Amino acid sequence: MGSSDAVTVTGVSVTRGARRVLRDVSLTVANGEVVALVGRSGSGKTTLLRLINRLLDPDAGEVIVEGRAVRDWDSVVLRRRTGYVIQDAGLFPHMTVASNIAVVPRLLQWPPDRIAARVDALLDMVGLAAGEYRNRWPDELSGGQRQRVSLARALAADPPLLLMDEPFGALDPITRSELHDEFRRLQASLRRAVVLVTHDMVEAFALADRIAVLHDGEIVACDVPASVLASTDPRVEPLVRTRVAPKRSEAGTVEPKRGEVG
Amino acid sequence: MSDLLAFIGSRQAEFLARTGEHVVLVAVSTLIAAAIGIPLGMLAARRPSAAKPIVALANLAQTVPSLALFGFLIPLPVIGGIGTRTALVALTLYAVLPVLRGTITGIQGVPAAVTECAAAMGLTPRQVLTQVEWPLALPSIVSGLRVAVVIGVGTATIASAIGAGGLGDYIFRGLAMVDSTVILAGAVPAAVLALVGDGVLALAGRFADPRRRSTRGRLPAAALAIVVIASLSAAVWAGGLAGRRDVIVGSKNFTEQIVLGELVAQVIERHGLNVERRFNLGGTAIAHQALVSGGLDAYVEYSGTALTAIFDMPPSTNATLVLELIRNRYAALGVTVLPRLGYNNTFAILVRKADADRLGLRSIGDLNKFSRARAGFGYEFLERPDGLTGLAAAYGLSFEGQPRTMDLNLIYRAVASGEIDVTAGDMTSGQIEALNLVVLEDDRRYFPVYEAVPVVRAGVLLRYPQVAEALRRLEGVISNETMRRLNYAVDAEKQDAFQVVKEFLDTIDRS
């Protein structure tokens, strides 16, 4: 655990009833690094994500964010320093786009003109014209636009860490690929630590610096994409092969989503 | 319709007071129901295991028929008795369920992704509630409140039976008088009130909706909300004014009682005190309960009724003894019996004046001179112990054939038209003189006495000695004939009881 690590997970286990959802999981995310958690449904990737901003507490093991165990963080403070993006965007339907983006800055009691300026800058950053979208309501946006707003909202208070749970999962392939490009562009300049949950291998290969493969609550591989791709582990290989291998050269571009993995 | 407008126009002040009472009943009970139902609903929405019993309980409360609910509440301490407080308890019980349901539906309708995101962004549980769940659940809560208001306006009309006032006063009075104009004077404004209340809340809901696109329509909505809030507060304030009274005078729910209530109220007012009227109470038990519990300070009871219905003793024909008995029993309850008004509202054996003159009929015994007299009676008179059987035995009467049984309201006309020759009516019925009938004297004193006596809480007499002074002015001033005339003026001639009594008191004051 170096001081350059945004997140360190050590020997974490989570039990739900009789089921071990996570078993002795360890993972490190360096500052500025994008780590994708992949695996079949039920493999424990969302659970692992929710441990990081203390939406869940582990039964054993330790989660450290910015050098400090999460149970020593005030969870509200921790969450305000952690961007969060989920599949359905989770935008507040009773707030305008601007208001949604401004939630955390408002909680942090930024002055109104600073918030307004930040909202406009963020809208620009995610490719939405501020003048046009600022006062829209979430249900007036397309799925892709909602996800852009959600990303802007997560970035609003400039958090060092972003947690994303299937952020582009509900989008059509073209929009998803556009957002992948957008994300890469943003990440190139922002260099945040990002934990990205996905079951789309294409997405993982397109966006992640490292890929952690979860299988039945355990991390069975955690390495740069090329190494994961080369893995012969029977728990890793099928995932990689069915989703990526045939179209490796096109990874991250227009890849129609085929049948679900799990 | 023009009748209705004329009726309302002729008693604007009373109408406004009743409407104000109605609005206050519904508004206050809905507010209390909101204060109970919304937090409870939020709790239930969070813990589905708690939701079932809570909703079941609220459901149960709503299935109790309103009149029965009022009946259950009257004997209870603190929340019971008669008057506004009890009515508010009952109305609140009814209003809680729709508010509860609206809240549960509203909170459960907030998408899980939204609340999860809110928590993940660092909103405290309290902020999640106030900034996310509450605004999103609000439309559903408002529709719950709207249902509560509409139910409340309807149920509040029944609150009149326990002396809470409101527009139900007109409905019950109209039912007692068989006068549809009076019924409509309560029913139509109540319907309008329900629509207005619903509309106001609908507008308020729209006003509270954060998604009003433009400021257009915002101003009128704001203005309307202000007007409504202002008129509500005015109504409450007026209610507070009505609350600044010295003495509460009540009556039961038939014409003679309302006339007597007016009589007592006005004579006290003429002695410089403020009087609140709680007329149309739904029966002897309710009026008595109110007097004892302090919901009423005074009303006029009948000595025989007090003896038998309240104190559960056998009826008696001895006027002095009856008064003595009830005076002692009332005293034990802190109630003083004031001097008799003068008349005795017992049964009256009635014949046509022509027959009485022709046959020289003066007393009931003289009926034996009336051969082949055909009799007709109300059902009750044939059944009760002090009814026909005893009467026939006491006077040795026999009638031609079986006496006919008929509705009480029809017997007077049946005698007048010659369908029957003899009947037992109400001593103070206005129809006796109007139909040219004559009361035969009960010289063997068969019928129990039902003398009208004011009963007043002793505490009130101590605090306001003028009350006793005022009511002594009424001692013996109302003969059977006077009472009949007053009843007739209100019942048959549809005059306003207030005006009839005022003119009567003027004549006494002049004499």
Mean pLDDT of chain A: 85
Largest interface: A-B, 26 and 18 residues
Query: In percent terms, what proportion of residues of chain B is strand?
Result: 5-15%
What is the strand tally of chain B? Answer: 10
Question: Based on helices, strands and strand pairing, what is the structural class of chain B?
Answer: mainly alpha
Please state how the strands of the largest beta sheet of chain A are arranged side by side. Answer: 6-7-8-3-9-10
Largest sheet of chain B: 3 strands, antiparallel
In N-to-C order, the SSE pattern of chain A is EEEHEEHEHHHHHEHEHEEHH
Identify the CATH architecture of the largest domain in chain A.
3-Layer(aba) Sandwich
What's the alpha carbon Rg of chain A, rounded to whole Å?
A: 18 Å
Q: Mean of the pLDDT scores of chain B?
A: 85
Low-confidence stretches of chain B: none
Beta content of chain A = 15-25%
Task: Tell me the name of the CATH class of the largest domain in chain A.
Answer: Alpha Beta
| Share of residues in helices of chain A | 25-40%
Order of strands in the sheet with most strands of chain B = 3-10-4
Task: Name the CATH superfamily assignment of the largest domain in chain B.
Answer: MetI-like
* Low-pLDDT residue intervals, each spanning 5 or more residues of chain A: 245-262
Helix content of chain B: 55-70%
Task: Map the helices and strands.
The complex is a heterodimer of chains A (262) and B (511).
Chain A: E1 5-16, E2 19-30, E3 34-38, H1 45-52, E4 60-65, E5 68-69, H2 75-80, E6 82-86, H3 97-101, H4 103-107, H5 112-125, H6 130-133, H7 143-155, E7 161-165, H8 173-190, E8 193-197, H9 201-207, E9 210-215, E10 218-223, H10 225-230, H11 237-243
Parallel strand pairs in A: 3-8, 3-9, 6-7, 7-8
Antiparallel strand pairs in A: 1-2, 1-4, 4-5, 9-10
Chain B: H1 2-10, H2 12-46, H3 48-63, H4 66-73, H5 84-108, H6 112-120, H7 125-156, H8 168-177, H9 180-208, H10 218-243, E1 247-252, H11 255-269, E2 275-281, H12 284-293, E3 298-302, H13 303-310, H14 319-332, E4 335-337, E5 347-352, H15 353-359, E6 376-377, H16 379-383, H17 388-395, E7 404-405, H18 411-416, E8 423-426, H19 431-434, E9 437-440, E10 452-457, H20 458-463, H21 465-472, H22 480-491, H23 497-510
Parallel strand pairs in B: 1-2, 6-7
Antiparallel strand pairs in B: 3-10, 4-10, 5-8, 5-9
